[in-house]
Amino acid sequence: MSDAQKSGGNANANAPKKGGNDNLKLPTRTENFSEWYNELVKRAKLADNSDVRGSMVIRPNGYAIWEHMQRALDDMFKETGHQNAYFPVLIPERYLAQEKKHVADFAPQVAVVTHAGGKPLPEGERYVIRPTSETIINRSFTNWVQSYRDLPILINQWANVMRWEMRPRLFLRTTEFLWQEGHTCHATEADATEETLRMLDVYERFAHDFMAMPVIKGQKTESEKFPGAVNTYSIEAMMQDKKALQAGTSHMLGQNFAKMFDTMYQSKEGKKEYVWQTSWGVSTRLIGALIMTHSDDQGLVVPPKLAPHQVVIIIIGKGDERGPVKAKAQAMAADMKKAGIRVLIDDDETKGPGFKYAEYELRGVCLRVEMGPKDLEKNQVVIARRDAKPAAPGERAPKDFVAVDAAVAFCGKALEDMQSSLFKRALEFQRANTFEVNSIDELKARQDDGFLLAHWDGTPETEKRFKDEFQLTTRNRPFDLKQEPGKCVLTGAPSNGRIVLCKAY
């Protein structure tokens, strides 16, 4: 028996019976998934609502996850030849007016600056707070591009954007959010298309390798594409409530913005040509996706590659007996840091082990190392994995008793296993909740069951019926789904292939 077990710690209890952390107990996912999500975000100290309607305060625990996402994505962008730049948050209102399709779709979300320096701005000199940056970046591209020798231009921006949100929800839909937006210029349509799909592949790889989140990659419908784009492609993830979440998009802009801003280059043949452009982005919405893909009724579950702290070493014992334990914990933590493991030591004597276990489960620390004087007498520590599941309901999740000298190597291997196990678990869930539907009756019966692969006649009228009658939206037409002709599930009209339908965030 370990020191933790002797002191009454329970890795599966959300709180001790009295005087503990009852405030950490969450609603369950089955009781109310929405309430579970909202409470988890707040109690795991990821984000709070702010006094600015629809905006959020991202707390250190949440921002640390975003930082790890940023670092991974930034490395991937630079590996594909992109450079970071920064453009103003204020965009001249007249820029949006130049691209009619763009401004029409974004108009309800745009915040307009009408006064500056205590005075109203004249008509034509007002600004909007960027909802996206295609227009102002294109103005710079027009100045930068003269010749084919200047191409391609491969730019990424890490920034905040503002889109007025009527139904805010932390991380998923907020008026202000953080994101990256890539913007590129190319000499040919083929080069721009290649770039668009390359960056979609980058997003898919990030979702799989870092978020442990399986996604479906495909093309958006005409009504769902980005305003002003020729084609939009997306990665779509399934949350634990079987709803879809759009996790990233990549847009082939063609020459639409180039023609509005006269972004042209002189070709090798001496002709003036419009550039071909792309844009692509992901946002802090990915944190919401991560929460809803992996977390459980005890709290946050974070894939190790993105976890702020991968290991917590909890010191157990009282008074003088803690001294040798603390020294051993510090030595072990130093070895973990050398091995590239992000580790935290908890030496707080004011809280009992049970409280701490529940707290770190709630916060999503991947591995918990329990270390007390009795453990050290046996030259061992007790290690609990955050994603470990009890063998049966009501039982405790299994723990491992590991020799002190083997603990660092054990943790390194356990983190690798957890990363792959989370992906496997999420992929099995996605596959178990993906269905072909071939009739209205099947569509009706399955409308809450996840990803539905249905034939569609390609018309916006039928697409609207999916939404109005079944609350289902078209997610994308998957690249890896073998497409064969059939009949539309609603109208019976000819269909050239299946599309993913799902209720969505």
Can you tell me about this structure?
It is a single chain. The chain is α+β, with helices and mostly antiparallel strands and 505 residues long. It has 3 domains: 3-20 and 300-416, 3-Layer(aba) Sandwich (Rossmann fold); 43-294, BirA Bifunctional Protein, domain 2, CATH 3.30.930; 434-502, 2-Layer Sandwich (Translation Initiation Factor IF3). It is built from 15 helices and 28 strands. It has an 8-stranded mixed β-sheet, sandwiched between helices. A hairpin with a 6-residue loop joins strand 1 (47-49) and strand 2 (56-58). The protein starts with a helix and ends with a strand. The model is unreliable at 6-22 (pLDDT under 50).
CATH class wording of the largest domain: Alpha Beta
Secondary-structure class = alpha+beta
The radius of gyration computed from the alpha-carbon positions, rounded to a whole number of angstroms, is: 26 Å
Q: Which topology of the largest domain does CATH recognise?
A: BirA Bifunctional Protein, domain 2
Strand content: 25-35%
Instruction: Return the CATH architecture of the largest domain.
Output: 2-Layer Sandwich
Largest sheet: 8 strands, mixed
Q: Tell the overall outline.
A: globular
Q: Give the CATH superfamily of the largest domain.
A: Bira Bifunctional Protein, Domain 2
Can you tell me the number of structural domains? 3
Query: What's the β-strand tally?
Result: 28
Helical content class: 25-40%
Number of helices: 15
The side-by-side strand order for the widest beta sheet comes to: 3-9-10-16-13-12-11-25
Poorly predicted ranges (pLDDT <50, ≥5 residues)? Answer: 6-22
How far apart lie the N and C ends? 46 Å
Mean pLDDT: 93
